[in-house]
């Protein structure tokens, strides 16, 4: 008869008790460890960082909730590309809530409840560098859904020579097949200019080639002048090898130029493809229209007339133009178009330019600071007479505002005409040179 190999029942019972106690102890240790929010946040951030190829850490107190809809809050968030000197994102506080179905899907589902960021700082150059390292995908990008929307407060975008300060983004819901309604406000700072904005935005669908609209208040503020505007914008979202931007952009605005006692209302419109790439914003090819205060008065006939000083003649021209605009390290503007008439408030044109009622084809080229303080080149032609001038806009505006001073505007230029008739005398083959301050450009630097 074979020997009995089974352990006595008492020994087997003790062994099971030991195993149970060991498992209970391990569970208690695990629960204690997981009860510390910093440990949970470390797991979540480490997994997210591994998935994105980023180093993600948090230095402040953390919170989490597992009952109901899971939620996690981390503070002093820091996100950087491994080995990078500058982080691409910092935030005082980050809040994320998402359902269990999304957690169990392990990335296959992007259903999120709500996202919040307090005081985020985003470095655009570092962000673009990381995006360039991401592997290409033949599949379209998945759009997450946010059933309770998102909020960003006290944000900051840092670009090359510009920044967006104290920006806020707030929208109530985001879904792949739902319109998005939100609000954006903040303040752009660049090269002596401040551009505060507060606009409402609507996106037809959160995907490329979908329509978007925007309306609200924007103001351009320089040292000596301001340009408050009420803007309206419509376009299609774009992303491609030429950068991010908007297709079929249509922008219209009611604006006022204010400097000292000068208050000039006008309306304008811009159209073209808008692009942002490598720290440069461009609109090319572009079309532009500008109408003076007569157009403003006609458009608002049912309202009280806009205030205007009696001594201020019309200084805003009616023009149609095409060309290009770019804004990066400097601002570049190249326009070609037609002035319907010469504004009454501008310096009188010398004969024979001033002796004709024909429209004036023009070329305007500018490259310099965004406050238009740099050198500009203007070319005018009426009939067979041509006038080329170099000037600086602040100096010309100061001359226009001055009640006394030089009879000639501060510009340098050259005029040529086949014939001038003055006081009964006829001069043929006339060439006239105008010289001003040696700091003003004597030869226009028009782009060819």
Describe this protein with a few key phrases:
448 residues, 48% strand, 6 helices, two-stranded parallel ribbon, elongated, single chain, alpha+beta, 22-stranded mixed β-sheet, disordered C terminus
Report the structural category. alpha+beta
> How many alpha or pi helices?
6
Proportion of strand residues: over 45%
- Rg, rounded, reads 32 Å
Mean pLDDT level: 79
Report the principal-axis shape: elongated
Largest sheet: 22 strands, mixed
Tell me roughly what share of residues is in helical segments: 10-25%
What string gives the helices and strands in order?
Answer: HHEEEEHEEEHEEEEEEEEEEHEEEEEHEE
| Spans where pLDDT lies below 50 across 5 or more residues | 27-40, 297-311, 439-448
Query: How widely separated are the two ends?
Result: 111 Å
The count of DSSP E runs of length 2 or more, i.e. the number of strands, is 24
Keywords: Membrane, Transmembrane, Transmembrane helix
Protein name: AsmA family protein
Transmembrane segments: 17-35
């Amino acid at each position: 008869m074979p020997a009995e190999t089974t352990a006595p029942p008492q020994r087997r019972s003790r062994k099971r008790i030991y195993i149970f106690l060991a498992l209970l102890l391990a569970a208690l240790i695990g629960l204690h460890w997981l009860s510390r929010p910093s440990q949970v946040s470390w797991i979540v951030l480490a997994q997210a960082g591994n998935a994105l190829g980023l180093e993600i850490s948090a230095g402040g107190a953390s919170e989490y909730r597992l009952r109901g809809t899971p939620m996690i809050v981390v503070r002093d968030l820091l996100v950087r590309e491994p080995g990078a000197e500058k982080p691409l994102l910092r935030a005082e506080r980050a809040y994320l809530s998402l359902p269990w179905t999304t957690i169990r899907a392990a990335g296959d589902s992007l259903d999120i409840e709500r996202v919040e960021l307090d005081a985020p700082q985003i470095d655009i150059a570092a962000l673009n560098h990381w995006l360039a390292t991401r592997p290409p995908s033949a599949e379209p990008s998945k759009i997450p859904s946010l059933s309770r929307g998102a909020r960003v407060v006290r944000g900051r975008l840092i670009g090359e020579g510009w920044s967006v300060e104290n920006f806020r983004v707030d929208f109530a819901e985001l879904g792949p097949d739902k319109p998005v309604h939100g609000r954006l406000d903040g303040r752009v700072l660049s090269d002596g200019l401040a551009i505060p904005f507060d606009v409402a935005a609507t996106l037809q669908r959160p995907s490329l080639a979908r329509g978007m609209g925007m309306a609200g208040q924007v103001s351009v503020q320089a040292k000596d002048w301001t340009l408050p505007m009420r803007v309206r914008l419509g376009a299609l979202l774009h992303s491609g090898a030429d950068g991010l931007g908007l297709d079929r952009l249509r922008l219209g605005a009611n604006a006022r130029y204010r400097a000292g006692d000068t208050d000039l209302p006008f309306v304008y419109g811009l159209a073209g493809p808008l692009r942002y790439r490598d720290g440069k914003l461009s609109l090319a090819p572009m079309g532009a229209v500008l109408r003076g205060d007569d157009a403003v008065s006609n458009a608002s006939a049912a309202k009280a007339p806009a205030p205007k000083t009696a001594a201020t003649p019309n200084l805003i021209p009616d023009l149609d133009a095409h060309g290009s605009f770019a804004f990066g390290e400097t601002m570049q503007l190249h326009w070609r178009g037609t002035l319907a008439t010469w504004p009454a408030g501008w310096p009188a044109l010398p004969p024979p330019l001033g002796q004709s009622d024909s429209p004036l084809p023009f070329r305007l080229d500018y490259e310099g600071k965004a406050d238009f303080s740099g050198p500009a080149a203007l070319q005018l032609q009426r009939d067979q007479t041509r006038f080329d001038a170099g000037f600086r806009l602040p100096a010309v505006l100061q001359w226009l505002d001055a009640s006394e001073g030089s009879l000639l505007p501060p510009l340098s230029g050259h005029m040529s005409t086949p014939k001038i008739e003055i006081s009964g005398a006829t001069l043929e083959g006339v060439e006239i040179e105008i010289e001003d301050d040696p700091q003003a450009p004597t030869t226009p630097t028009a782009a060819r």
